[in-house]
Amino acid sequence: MIRIGLAGVGFMGMIHFLASRALKGAKVAAIHTRDPKKLSGDWRGIQGNFGPPGEIMDLKGIAAYDDFDAMLADPKIDLIDICTPTDRHAPMAIAALKAGKHVLVEKAIALSPKEADKMIEAAQKSGKLLMVAHVLPFFAEFAFLLELVRKGTYGRLVAGRLERLISRPDWSADIGDAEKTGGPVIDLHIHDTHFLGLLAGMPGRLSSIGIANNQDIVEYVSTNYIYGDNGPAISAVSGAIAMPGRPFQHGFDLQFEKATVAYSSGGIPLTVFTRDGKAIQPVLKGPAGPVEAFTLEIQAAVNGVRKGVCPPELDASLAKEALALCQFECQSALQHKPVVVK
Predict the structure, then answer these.
(1) Which long-range contacts (CB under 8 A, 24 or more apart) does 256-260 make?
(2) What backbone torsions phi and psi does residue 131 show, to the nearest 5 degrees?
(3) pLDDT of residue 172
(4) First CA to last CA across the chain, in angstroms?
(5) Are 93 and 82 in contact (CB under 8 A)?
(6) How many CB atoms lie within 10 A of CB 210?
(7) Does an H or E element contain 20, and which?
(8) Beta partners for residue 250, in sequence order
(9) Which residues of the chain are under the pLDDT cut of 50?
(10) Which one, 48, 74, 174, 257, has least CB within 10 Å?
(11) H or E segment and range at residue 81
(12) β-sheet bridge partners, residue 279
């Protein structure tokens, strides 16, 4: 049995807690939060942009720590699952690795690639796994798409567009604080840059336009990724400036040599359009909802710990590249010119 110590009981921590109930061969054995109410199981103040609202949680049999170092000292804990705001990811992950624990840390891996490098170095020195919880590849529609690319089912990926849009994140003080999260590009759009890395690898150059607030935090970005003569020609749009009540929406419209594959959570079911004019809606094998996707993500981390091998979807180096790509996009949007991805 892999025993998990959950660090951070905000919205994402609650989602990880709920998702972990369905794990095979693993369970949450401890939680860490500095909030006395949450330590007692009163999570009713938690809310987010998907999933259920917070409630009174049964924490029977689960150790509760208000001190992170105390949880790290617990010899029964194998894996630390870090769900705190992003500005705490690097110091907490490094401390956990030094304590001999495997680590799963929520996206983004950190606020800067330099911090991410320190985390990766700490993992290498400790001999423990550092995994980054990018959940998008575990959603059924996106997992289906990755499988098409990996198998070459419809030939080469030629072109396409990714989309991710929400209203302003006012459900949490932390998530709306760019100093803690890096802003909407790093906190939201990083899903797309990470998935792009799995789809096509990282581009050599990019060109972005965007909308920034008066602190130069980019809140909406539209990017063209430049791979060179052999393509693919891929773009993405992402933002957190929609009006209240506008539902979250993500999706893709991708062109392969032999098919077009489209999906939008806003109303277009996953559909494969083939050369002969057919529109096929595949039967998906995957989670029924977002919490179930997190179960698959955490299960992959648990399996990685058991086997001693990091799943490619949770690879820390890819997560660092996705973070760096977001920063290059912000640079391009603010400077109004293309940039080279280094």
Answers:
(1) 256/148, 256/154, 256/155, 256/156, 256/157, 256/158, 257/154, 257/155, 257/156, 257/158, 258/154, 258/155, 259/153, 259/154, 259/155
(2) -120, 145
(3) 52
(4) 41
(5) yes
(6) 22
(7) helix 11-20
(8) 164
(9) none
(10) 257
(11) strand 79-82
(12) 273
